[in-house]
Amino acid sequence: MKGSYGVVIFYSTSAALRAESLAKRENLKIKLIPVPRHLSSDCGVCLRFESEERATLQKILQEGKVEYKDICNL
Amino acid sequence: MINNSNGWKEFFSSRKNVIFTGIFIGISAAFLQKLGNPPNMGICVACMLRDTAGALGLHRAEVVQYIRPEISGFVLGSLIAALIFKEFKPRAGSAPLVRLVLGFWAMVGSLVFLGCPWRTLLRLAGGDGNALFGLVGLIVGIIIGIFFIKAGYNLGRNERTYPLVGWIMPVVMVVLLLLLIFRPQLPSGAVFFSRQGPGAQHAPIFIALLVALGIGFLAQRTRFCTVAAVRDVILIRDNYLITGVISLWLAAFISNLLLGQFHPGFTGQPIAHSSQLWNFGGMVLAGLAFTLAGGCPGRQLFLTGEGDADAAFFILGMMGGASFAHNFATASSSTGPSPWGPPAVIIGFIVCLIIGFSRSDLGRAKEGEKNE
Predict the structure, then answer these.
(1) Cβ of B228 and A43 within 8 Å?
(2) Does B367 have pLDDT greater than 60?
(3) For B183-308, where are the alpha helices, taking DSSP H only?
(4) Is B226 exposed, middle or buried (0-12, 13-18, 19+ CB in 10 A)?
(5) Which residues contact B54 (CB under 8 A, 6 or more apart)?
(6) Widest CA span of chain A, in angstroms?
(7) Are B149 and A41 a contacting pair at CB < 8 A?
(8) With a threshold of 0.90, does the pTM exceed it?
(9) Beta carbons within 10 angstroms of residue A6's beta carbon
(10) Is B247 helix (H, G, I), strand (E, B) or coil?
(11) Which residues of B touch A32 (CB under 8 A)?
(12) What pLDDT score does A12 carry?
């Protein structure tokens, strides 16, 4: 049984990579994936997370000062 | 077994649109060649922008002057898809001048190799072995670009802007089509149309336009991009886009076999040369510039259709680069690279490295810009 997922969309690929490394350090179950086509037409990457870890991830991004564009549910 | 076949089913269903797009582009390219486009150049974004720049008189290489309706079709097809699916989002402000410079050097590199990433695939699909060196160069260029992305490279974010900005390039594309159809002849000689050479080889206007509209539409929907395809495989181990790219190559290869357009070898290949070092070097430069700008030239056209003014600057930079490459003799010919080609590639490479360093943490740390 997989839980539900959400994604964080960033302004740049490097911001996504930075968010990934910060979240990995905290052992969150995250994965970089291409931005789902229905969310944005950018060809960039975004960070997928498990919904129950949303608050933790948001806190990590805030503390790490990683700017992001949007957080969406999948 | 059942699990396995389900896995494959899922693989294809999640990717069927991008696979279809790749197949459509591959078959279209082979047929546009059959219908008159230059050999192994059924579709080539770099060559077609270069021909269009020539037709407008931006360069005077008489054999490569023609307003390619495919370019307008790509932009307008993407515009139509973006309007229908509410993705027409005029945006601007992410380092337009830097993107112009990247487009410029991407074109200079492409014209030393003689082709964009799409034509690299099409040349391979037509049996041109020299393109292998271009492909390896392209991948190396993308890997260098990924190095900068991993080091925090970005050009700053864009902002939503007013609709007028997004409509400028589509209007320009319609004007280009009108110039092509009505062919006004001014005392200056413009609009220039080649009487011989690749510029004189072209498919019927309306067929080329229709096919390109279809490609623009599909590519906007699927985010088809050859450079992002390689980037995603290396950076995040995702194979969505690469399946589309491989489909393009396979479809073109099979179509070429059926149409008798497959001629394997290294010598005597059409609009190509066998100086492998500079086939490689030209595409390293192009691959790096494309990656730093976030996409291959096809993708930049589709983004332009969606209202992305920064992608439009990249395209304008490519047209400037094409004019430079022919006016200052850095473009290769079928006899090989010109004496000025290799130095131009090296200068362009240095410029791209400077952009990469200065816009990543490697350079910004020194400026005290890093906010950690």
Answers:
(1) yes
(2) no
(3) 205-222, 226-236, 240-259, 276-293, 297-305
(4) buried
(5) B60, B61, B64, B65, B66, B192, B194, B199, B322, B326
(6) 33
(7) no
(8) yes
(9) 17
(10) helix
(11) 235-236, 238
(12) 87
Cβ–Cβ of A41/B238 closer than 8 Å?
no
Domain ranges of chain B: 15-367
Residue B356 backbone zone (phi > 0: left; psi -120 to 50: alpha; other: beta): alpha
The 3-state DSSP class for residue B127 equals coil
Q: Do A65 and B153 touch (CB under 8 A)?
A: no
Domain count, chain A: 1
- Chain B residue with CA closest to A46: the answer is B236
Q: What is the DSSP string of B322-369?
A: HHHHHHTT-S-BTTB--TTHHHHHHHHHHHHHHHHHHTSHHHHHHHT-
This complex has an ipTM of 0.87
Residue B225 with chain A: CB contacts under 8 Å: 43
- The residue among A3 and B48 whose pLDDT is bigger is B48
pLDDT tens per residue across span A51-65: 999 999 999 999 999
- Looking at beta carbons, which residues of chain B come within 8 Å of A13? 149, 154, 235, 294
Out of B154, B220, B225, name the one closest to residue A15 (CB).
Answer: B154
Answer yes or no: are the C-beta atoms of A7 and A72 closer than 8 Å: yes
Q: What is the largest CA-CA distance in chain B?
A: 72
Q: Tell me, what CATH number does A51's domain have?
A: 3.30.70
Rounded Cα distance between B56 and B53, Å, is 5
Give residue A67's domain range: 5-73
Residue in A closest to B224 by C-alpha: A43
Question: What's the CA gap between B150 and B55, in Å, rounded?
Answer: 40
